């Protein structure tokens, strides 16, 4: 049995949060090692068994760009029977074709709030990327799929510095207008602080993009991910992205410790009495198992603390 925090609720928080687990996709995509397909499938099964109701499974980006996820076609059928939402990334219509042919029901496109990152990641301007996604989102919606829009560099950009709120609002508005059900605000290099988070969510609300349609995706580069998450929950956000064991860094942020660890998030939410449905003990055991497969310890503080005790 895992040690659990004492539950003491705080005012102004949602009763329940949906954790959008990104470890198998965002985590493994940014790991040096290429993990065997069966290990990925087992990872996803264990995450589902730990109570995660949304597990982003893989990406249908061209294998040339993301060799770590080149086995999407082999992996997806191994897990598609699970009773868990399994979103997949689709960069374009070809990617959507591949996802649809495997029966995917939840897809995500990925845009950038800044020109520099759009150029680096998509080889396009921000508006060219939005134009590329428009028919993808329209067709996905016609097929009855849910569509998430990721937005990178919402707070700071390694080339451009701080990102103006209105620039982020404009791209969010465009993604919402084209039909995205949910927008995930990415702090790709981890520079956000809580006031900035609340200011962005407030500005989006004023622009007609309510907190109920937002998710937050924080990186813990400067140790701010949990503080930023709490700030977002206080503004009405109820979906939080996190990566089991803190898997994955960001290739554009030097020494980035990467994604918010799901265990660190669940520890805080358990303590606050906010329901997630996640079993912290099973989740920690899963991340410890995965760390053994990767041959390096989990960077998650909670995984380390709980593993140390056992
Ligand atoms: Mg990430």
What is the strand and helix layout of this fold?
Elements: E1 18-21, H1 23-29, H2 37-49, E2 54-55, E3 58-59, H3 72-79, E4 88-89, H4 93-101, E5 106-112, H5 115-122, H6 126-142, E6 146-152, E7 156-157, E8 161-162, H7 165-178, E9 182-187, H8 194-206, E10 214-218, H9 225-234, E11 239-242, H10 262-272, H11 280-294, H12 301-309
Parallel strand pairs: 1-2, 1-11, 3-4, 4-5, 5-6, 6-9, 9-10, 10-11
Antiparallel strand pairs: 7-8
Helix pairs in contact: 2-3, 2-11, 6-7, 7-8, 8-9, 11-12
Bound molecules: magnesium ion.
Magnesium ion binds at residues 26, 217, 219, 259.
Instruction: Supply the helix-strand structural class.
Output: alpha/beta
* Reported CATH architecture: Alpha-Beta Barrel
Which word captures the global form?
A: globular
Which ligands occur here? Answer: magnesium ion
Q: Report how far apart the termini are.
A: 9 Å
What is the CATH homologous superfamily assignment? Aldolase class I
Biggest β-sheet: strands ordered side by side in the sheet? 2-1-11-10-9-6-5-4-3
Number of domain units: 1
Mean pLDDT: 94
Number of helices: 12
Strand content: 5-15%
Major sheet description: 9 strands, parallel
Low-confidence stretches: none
**Would you give the CATH topology?**
TIM Barrel
Strand runs, count: 11
What's a concise summary of this model?
The chain has 310 residues and is α/β, with parallel strands linked by helices. It has one domain (18-309): Aldolase class I (TIM Barrel), CATH 3.20.20.70. Helix content is 43%, strand content 14%.
């Amino acid at each position: 049995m895992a040690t659990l925090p004492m539950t003491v609720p705080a005012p102004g928080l949602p009763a329940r949060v949906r954790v959008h687990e990104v470890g198998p996709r965002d985590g493994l995509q940014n790991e040096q090692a290429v993990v065997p397909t069966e290990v990925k499938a087992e990872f996803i099964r264990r995450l589902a068994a730990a109570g995660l109701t949304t597990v982003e499974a893989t990406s249908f980006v061209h294998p040339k760009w993301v060799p770590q996820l080149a086995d999407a076609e082999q992996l997806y059928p191994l897990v598609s029977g699970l009773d868990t939402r399994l979103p997949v990334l689709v960069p374009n219509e070809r990617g959507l074709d591949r996802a649809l042919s495997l029966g995917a029901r939840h897809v995500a496109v990925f845009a950038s709030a800044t020109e520099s990152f759009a150029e680096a990641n998509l080889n396009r301007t921000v508006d060219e990327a939005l134009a590329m996604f428009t028919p993808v989102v329209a067709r996905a919606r016609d097929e009855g799929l849910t569509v998430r829009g990721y937005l990178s560099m919402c707070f700071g950009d390694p080339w451009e510095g701080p990102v103006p709120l209105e620039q982020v609002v404009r791209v969010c508005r465009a993604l919402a207008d084209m039909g995205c059900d949910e927008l995930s605000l990415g702090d790709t290099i981890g520079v956000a602080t809580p006031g900035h988070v609340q200011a962005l969510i407030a500005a989006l609300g004023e622009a007609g993009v309510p907190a109920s349609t937002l998710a937050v995706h924080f990186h813990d580069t400067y140790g701010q991910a949990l503080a930023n998450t709490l700030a977002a929950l206080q503004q009405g956000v109820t979906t939080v992205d996190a990566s089991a064991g803190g898997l994955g860094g960001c290739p554009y942020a030097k020494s980035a410790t990467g994604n918010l660890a799901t265990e660190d998030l669940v520890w805080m939410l358990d303590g606050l009495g906010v329901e997630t449905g996640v079993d912290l003990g099973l989740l920690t055991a899963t991340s410890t198992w995965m760390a053994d497969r990767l041959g390096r310890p989990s960077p998650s503080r909670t995984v380390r603390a709980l593993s140390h005790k056992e």
